Amino acid sequence: MPDELVTLGHVFEDEDDVMDYAAENRRLRLALAAAQEAQARTERDLRSAQASIVVLRKQLTPLYRALQAVFGEIDAAGVTPDQPEVVASSQAPRVSALWEEWKVKLGVGSSASRMIDALLVHGELSVAQLIVAMKAAKQTVYDAASRLNRVGLINKNGGKYSLKKL
User: Fold this and answer.
1) Of 57, 92, 148, 151, which has the highest C-beta tally within 10 A?
2) pTM over the 0.90 mark
């Protein structure tokens, strides 16, 4: 076959085949260049968006931290979306007097008496909430809970503490 053109292992029947393949090659090269340009634009847009997010984060961080503090206080108050009411601190005088007697027995100002006060005001609280409400360290909360448990004054339910009914 003396009329055949051979290019890189492919045998072309005639010059029209060569022209068709050359045109297809140009078309594919143009499509590739367009795709590469689109990718470069997308990467530039992504870098720009990331820079905008960094600026936004810097601007919103103080607000985020302030809201964390506010929600910490709300949690310490024992108010949750499914339980919006806060336990009233004004109880029947007889019950209040009994708790005051217990606080004297446990030591006025002791961590156990401060835990009683926090639970009287807020109702059921977690350890994290007690830390905030009592302004105490975690171990102090655990020690107070242990002391109150020994004398039978608190309940623990699912990681939250509450006072027993007197």
Assistant:
1) 148
2) no
